[in-house]
Amino acid sequence: MQFTTLLSVLAMTAMAAASPVSPVPISDHPLLEKRASIGCSMKDLWAAPSGSMDGVIKNLINNNPNGQICTWNINARRDNTHGWVTAECDVNDGQHPAVWYHTWGTAHVCRSRKEIGEMARQIYNSCKQGDIVQGWIQDESRGETWVEIGRTPNGCKASS
């Protein structure tokens, strides 16, 4: 009996370990809570370490450009008077389509910091920047997150 119980516990543990970890939905990202404290003008950006998404992208491309990032994501969201909306943008990293101006990397798709920076630049340049009200690039392998919030005053109204 104990042996059977042990086997079932081991099987459940193995199944749990094999299950992919779901990313935090963008709408539930803890950094979104910062929106309320900064207001919604074009100058109201909350970002680290460089102060803006443009600076973040430059840092990725110029600082240790060959450094590998294996678990990463690039995100941007836009808003309208009815709240958050999804938008497709014809940008991808060759393997993952960008939805919500969004690309995911996995531990199986390592990229250099320069490649990730260039992908981010493509996403932000190809999509309507005026509609982007919140975005981030995250290197999950190091726990580093860079965020830019509040690109346009009008975009902030629905979700503030």
UniProtKB/TrEMBL annotation:
Q: Where is the signal peptide?
A: 1-18
Keyword vocabulary terms for this entry = Signal
State what protein this is by name.
Ecp2 effector protein domain-containing protein
